[in-house]
Amino acid sequence: MGLIKFVAMGSDEAKAFRNGAPDAYGMKPERRLSDGSGVPCRHCLRSVPEGTPYLTLAYRPFPQTQPYAETGPVFLCAEECERAPDSDVMPALFRARTEWLLRGYGHDDRIVYGTGAVTPKQDICTRAHELLQREDIAYLHMRSAQYNCYQVRIDRA
Questions:
Q1: Which residue of 40, 67, 99, 128 is surrounded by the most CB atoms within 10 Å?
Q2: Which Pfam families does the record associate with it (predicted)?
Q3: Using the 8-state DSSP alphabet, how is residue 49 labeled?
C-alpha cells in the first residue's frame, strides 16, 4: 500500500443506519429508489444501480458535535453491500468528476486553516500525500467541490 489510504464508512455504522439508527439530526434515514445516476454509496464506494433502494441521511463524520463538525447528506445502499477496502488508489466512483474539495483536520477534529482547496482529480493523491506530511493534520476529507458533501476520508497508510 502507498502513503495514503481512502477510507469508506465503516460497516458497523452503515449497518446501524440500515437498521433504522437515527442520523446526525436524529431522523430515521429516508428510503428511495435509485435512478442510476448521482447516488454514490459511502460504504461500498459505488453508484447505487437504477431501481435499487438506497438511504439518504444526514451524516456527521466526526466523533462528536463541535463547531467544525460539518453535517450533510450522504447516500448509502439500503441493502447490505461490501465495504470498499482501504486503498491508496482513488476509488473509481470519484474519477468521473473533474475536481474535488480536499480539506485537512487536526487531531482535535477541527479544520486546519489553509488546507482546504478545490483540487483537480489528477492531483488528489499528490495533494493528500503533501497535506498528510504535516504533523498538525490528522486526516483529510474529500468532499464535493460543488455541494461540499462528504465523500470519503483519507488517512496516512
A1: 128
A2: DUF1203 (PF06718)
A3: P
